[in-house]
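Exercise (ungraded).
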Amino acid sequence: MTEMLRVSMSTHRADVTPGTPDRSVRQGASVELLDLHRHFGATRALDGMSLVIEPGELVSLLGPSGCGKTTALRVLAGFDVPDSGKVLVDGRDIGRVPSQDRDMGMVFQSYSLFPNMDARDNVAFGLRMRGVKKGERRRRAAELLEMVGLIKEARKYPHQLSGGQQQRVALARALAIEPRVLLLDEPLSALDAKVRVQLREQIRALQTRLQTTTVFVTHDQEEALSISDRVCVMRSGRIEQVDVPSLLYARPATPFVAEFVGTMNRIPARATSSGVVVLGRQVPVRGSFRVALGSTVDVLVRPEELTISAVGVGTGVVMGKTFFGAVTRLAVLLDGAVTVQVDKSTADAASIDPGAAVELGVLATEVMVAEPEGERWTR
Amino acid sequence: MVVPVVAADTALRRDGDTSAGGRSASLSWRRIRAWRGIVLGLTGIFFLLPLYAALRFALENNLGHLTLAAFSAIPHTTGFIPAFLLSVRLAAVTMAITMALIVPTTIYVHVKYPKLLVAFDAITFLPVGIPPIVLIIGVLQSAPFVLKSTPYLLALEYVILAMPFAYRSLDAGLRAIELKTLVDASRSLGGSWLATLWRVIVPNLRSAFLSAMILTLALVFGEFTMASLDLYTTLPVWVVNTDSITAHVSVAVSFLSLALTWVLLLALSSVDRRRFARRALIVEGT
Ligand SMILES: Nc1ncnc2c1ncn2[C@@H]1O[C@H](COP(=O)(O)OP(=O)(O)OP(=O)(O)O)[C@@H](O)[C@H]1O
Ligand SMILES: [Mg+2]
């Protein structure tokens, strides 16, 4: 094992093009979470969570605040013990392995560099704990700092580094131990938008190259969708859906996922025996729902699944226009009650100005029925 | 203690800097400054006047002439050396026991049972409220037999007396660092508990340690009641006893021991201040 580590370590060169998988690198481990439960009093932080992560995969845990993402990560890292359920790494139950023997590199949400050590010593810390000789660990720390572009900052202390630099050092520190699994708990949330985008791309490029199995926690859907192989949407300690980003967006499994990922409209509709009537059109419903025939429900329609046309007298009024480049988003007040977002190509939207009366139509071949506000459906 | 004063001071100064343009702001700033001067002046007089008097007394002979005789007589005065050495030994033992007991306990509670911190705050405050005689009897009842006839019994009592100060210093130090995250980070990197304690936690508590140490030291060098009740001639007991024989020397010693503590505290607060400056740098940097 150690030999392998050595070999793969030597490939941590800065001249390797980031982003392309490096064949000589050891593949990451597989991770299985089996029916994890973790309750804090009445709070069910994890409520039967099961997830299989393939070697070398980057999976994001995405969900609203308090849904159990950090708890899942802490259980995986061994900082917290589940009430029941198992964690398998490469098929082996690691429930009894203490955190310091798990070989999991972790980057934390808050700045976690050791204030008493400079960047180089921070990165070398894990190697020091593994008894690697001083010269060797300094050399390796330098390689890793080079990799995250901070070799010039090697001798700086955490308080002399910017937030983004600190998180990059933290990433280098986590990678220095050649972790079997890399755990990232909202590592970018304290950074400003621009640095965030840069850094997440850097993380993804490194991860692709090193093929380290990675769990990335975030509550930012754009972040999750843009860098993950698969995204795992969580809610109140359970998994709603695990899928590749495109499917998560195009075919959400539950109304919660549909609304949580991407922009989604809620539009009133009438339930019929074969679906719903929305904006004057009969549309089939995807998934199950139970309401009385003829009653009013909200259905979920994406902004690009709506048509819009300017008319003399319509049910909608254009309230605002947001330019996104090729696409322009129109905010339409429907029946004086609900605001709906409609995406149009900027060319088509040019003729529609705020204040215009419009008629909306549905393009979607099927729709989902939204959960009533503040309620949760059993699946 | 010293730290909050520093903090308030910088906060005020910031305020003043940002509003320097506004006229009314600068006026109220001036008023604050005046008040601060008055308060500081009065406090200074309150604390410094007795010191001045003591120094004056120590430096004067019976005829009222200035002389260093009292100071140079200190080492030759009967009983000074043994009393001083006893206090030094007691201080060393007290600090050793305090560090061995309070440091691991405080860190452990912070890491493992942060919910118990409230209870700890209350418990560690008890020695301040309990009369010395009760503490003495308590320690006598529970101390190991071999210690009962040695002055180290006093050290045990001092450990209890110093606990509120030592605990509070460490507690403040631990609250100032991101303890949980640092511990988790170290653990995930393969650090054992001992390595985490030694390489991560302790180095970041340096000024907290220092302040716990100095407070303990000051306590041992100033405590009179327990020592005299236990019939041991520590430095403070000696000072009181000698007062009736050579008052000038006794006051000179008190003054020196006070000055020493003061210098130590000053050194400590300057260490703290440097840390503050560093923190401020972080805030501005991010
Ligand atoms: N040590 C604890 N004691 C009590 N409750 C806890 C503890 N840790 C977590 N919880 C609770 O468990 C739930 C899940 O917490 P967790 O930190 O996993 O959420 P999260 O998804 O990471 O949220 P965020 O996005 O805000 O970080 C929350 O309701 C939280 O209050
Ligand atoms: Mg969290």
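Further reading is listed at the end of the chapter. For now, observe: The pocket of adenosine-5'-triphosphate (ligand 1) is lined by residues A 40, 43, 45, 63, 65-71, 219 (CB under 6 Å). Chain A is about 25% helix and 30% strand.
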